[in-house]
User: Which sequence fits this backbone?
């Protein structure tokens, strides 16, 4: 710092050599600025909560909480609106389950291969290749689900009537592929953190590689793997573009994946991209559904973060 | 993505050759099964890219970047306003989020005492924000920026919203890069009488720049592909002009693509595919730049 030199401070003579000779105000200012930047993230969360609460409160001033959570009809944008969120919740749940049925086994298998079988060189090529999947914009996945996967399913459906033009199945399948890298990458990290001594012990007892992987490494990394899956659930619940494009805009309470349905995010996207007047009640519904979505994903994220912490503490 | 790896994971020990002497058919079946898992993702990616390219082929020409969108005449429609809108929005996103993100990362790595509750809160908060659905950021932008602060649905609102969206990614990546700089460098600098900030600015930051740059590029490539929050922020589909300032209306490529997918006519699907090819090409270039940066400048200490 280029401030003019000051006379040495007057302190007890014996400790003077080790004492800072002048206060560095510039350092303090910089530290405060940096802290301010870090606080932007806290302000973001606060901003989300602040922007959600007033419209949501207004919404529940007119709609009963019980009706919202237990009602089976969602016609928020119609002339005779009904605000039962179950159809949106059911669709979200169904598509999430389909996505996880794809993502968890496949992601876990890929993680085991990358962690236990692949040579360092192979891993160096395959892991980034897998992660490209996570970089593909979701609008592209939506396009692919609607114009490639759905026709494919319709043409080759083996029994009965095929899926609708918009359906939950193709959205869920494609979303599953999108989540594979999330689960594979985090699980692989957890497996890599398992100490070699555990593997060596199992090998010494005469186990093969498969037994070591499945009976030793996976259980030892379980909390990390579960965290990865919880994060996967959170991503599936929050994913918007794929469901907005491929699963349809009709909120129906159905558990047939061949039907068209609308998820929570799908509704927010549909309602939000129209021209809804700010003062109208429809506008408030966006925030009410958004608040529900935020609470659900918030809880999921916290569970996932906690689990990751847990396995880190064990092995480091 | 939240899990961006800037530093290479440590090399693992060579595979051991101590497998049992017996022939184990289960082993090879299992191995093949695992390889299939890996294959699913990569084959899917290959099919997706091929399909998009084939669909886009008839429309992949100069009309795409010379013309503006048109609802009536798909054969004359282009995506110029979306391409320029993307450039505008992403430039300002970078301008807002990169300095903030790097500063926050410096604070958390160099100054913050991890035992203090407020520092732990900031950290937890960032981890949570990294996994908050992007459409929630759209609600934030709509409720707080566009309405409360009455910024309207402009380039500025979009850039601010996307900045907040990718900020956690920038912070996490920058932290990893800063953490990878060895302590001995800091200690040497401090021992020579440099202050903490001088140490950070002249020693730590230059050493961490490649990692920070890699993470930043990946974060911005996420911002480019993001459509959900902008759906709520008035990125309308048929904008027949390029943005001229922060107050301007705009559209971006993902939104333009979304608009074209929603059209029923066949021509618009080819158009959507063509715009997707452009979007993917931009993203691929950015990813390649990130990988190149990492390989070119990464140091092993």
Assistant:
């Amino acid at each position: 710092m280029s401030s003019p030199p000051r006379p040495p401070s007057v302190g007890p003579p014996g400790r003077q050599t080790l004492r800072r000779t002048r206060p560095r105000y510039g350092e303090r200012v910089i530290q405060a600025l940096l802290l301010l930047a870090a606080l932007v993230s806290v302000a973001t969360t606060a901003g989300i909560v602040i922007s959600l609460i007033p419209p949501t409160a207004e919404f529940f001033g007119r709609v009963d909480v019980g009706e919202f959570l237990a009602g089976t009809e969602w016609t928020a944008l119609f002339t005779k609106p009904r605000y039962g969120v179950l159809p949106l919740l059911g669709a979200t749940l169904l598509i999430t389950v389909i996505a996880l049925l794809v993502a968890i086994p496949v992601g876990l298998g890929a993680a085991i291969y990358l962690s236990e079988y692949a040579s360092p060189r192979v891993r160096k090529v395959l892991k980034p290749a897998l992660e490209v999947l996570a970089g593909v914009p979701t609008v592209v996945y939506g396009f692919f689900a609607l114009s490639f996967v759905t026709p494919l399913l319709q043409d080759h459906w083996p029994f009965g009537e095929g899926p609708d033009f918009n359906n939950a199945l193709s959205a869920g399948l494609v979303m599953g592929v999108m989540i594979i890298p999330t689960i594979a990458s985090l699980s692989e990290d957890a497996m890599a953190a398992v100490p070699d001594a555990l593997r060596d012990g199992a090998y010494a007892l005469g186990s093969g590689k498969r037994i070591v992987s499945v009976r030793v490494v996976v259980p030892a990394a379980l909390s990390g793997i579960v965290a990865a899956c919880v994060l996967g659930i959170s991503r599936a619940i929050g994913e918007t573009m794929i469901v907005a494009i491929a699963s349809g805009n009709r909120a129906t309470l159905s558990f047939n994946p061949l039907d068209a349905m609308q998820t929570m995010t799908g509704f927010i996207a549909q309602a939000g991209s129209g021209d809804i007047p700010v003062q109208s009640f429809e506008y408030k519904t966006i925030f009410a559904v958004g608040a529900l979505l935020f609470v659900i994903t918030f809880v999921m994220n916290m569970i996932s973060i906690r689990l990751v912490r847990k396995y880190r503490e064990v092995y480091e | 993505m939240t899990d961006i790896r800037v530093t290479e994971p440590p090399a693992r020990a060579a595979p051991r050759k101590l497998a049992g002497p017996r022939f184990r058919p289960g082993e090879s079946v299992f191995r093949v099964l695992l390889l299939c898992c890996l294959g699913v993702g990569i084959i899917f990616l290959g099919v997706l890219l091929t399909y998009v390219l084939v669909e886009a082929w008839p429309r992949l020409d100069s009309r795409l970047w010379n013309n503006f969108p048109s609802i009536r005449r798909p054969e004359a429609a282009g995506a110029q306003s979306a391409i320029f809108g993307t450039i505008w929005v992403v430039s300002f996103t970078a301008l807002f989020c990169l300095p903030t993100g790097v500063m926050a990362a410096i604070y958390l790595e160099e100054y913050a005492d991890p035992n203090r509750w407020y520092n732990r809160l900031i950290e937890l908060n960032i981890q949570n924000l990294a996994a908050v659905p992007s459409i929630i950021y759209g609600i934030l932008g709509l409720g707080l920026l566009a309405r409360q602060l009455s910024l309207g649905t402009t380039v500025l609102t979009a850039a601010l919203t996307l900045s907040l969206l990718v900020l956690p990614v920038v912070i996490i990546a920058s932290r990893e890069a800063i953490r990878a700089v060895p302590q001995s460098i800091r200690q040497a600098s401090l021992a020579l009488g440099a202050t903490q900030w001088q140490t950070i600015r002249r020693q730590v930051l230059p050493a961490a720049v490649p990692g920070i740059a890699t993470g930043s590029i990946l974060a911005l490539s996420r911002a480019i592909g993001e459509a959900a929050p902008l759906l709520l922020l008035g990125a309308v589909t048929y904008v027949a002009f390029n943005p001229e300032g922060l107050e301007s209306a705009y559209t971006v490529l993902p939104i333009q693509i979304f608009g074209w997918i929603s059209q029923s006519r066949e021509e618009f699907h080819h158009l959507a595919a063509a715009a997707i090819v452009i979007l993917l090409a931009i993203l691929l270039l950015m990813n390649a730049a990130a990988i190149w940066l990492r390989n070119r400048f990464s140091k092993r200490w």
Notes: Chain A has one domain: 87-311. DSSP finds twelve helices and no strands in chain A. Chain A has a mean pLDDT of 86. Chain A touches chain B through 101 residues (CB under 8 Å).
